[in-house]
Amino acid sequence: MTHWGGTGRYVEGERVFAPPAGTFDADWAAALARERLGAAAPPQEDLVAAAGTAWRALRAGADEGSLAPLLQREHRLTAEAASAVLRSVRDYVAAYGAAPA
């Protein structure tokens, strides 16, 4: 295969199977939550926004126990959806080395 343009690390149209290690991708974390929630999942954009909120709060040193109520309040998620988002963010961080601090 011939490489055309770019840095050589990624070419437009190339299939990407995971985000770069050490980075946070709210869309990726939201997709994990959506998969876990199934038919009960809220819209994708709500999950993406909630994952971003959870990530920023964790980076700021928030207590994880306060995050589910925060996500429920700010994003109008059910307790189940808020819990799924938090689990997905934690799992994403563990899998891709995107430590919050």
Automatic annotation (TrEMBL):
It comes from the Bacteria. This is Uncharacterized protein. It comes from Vallicoccus soli.
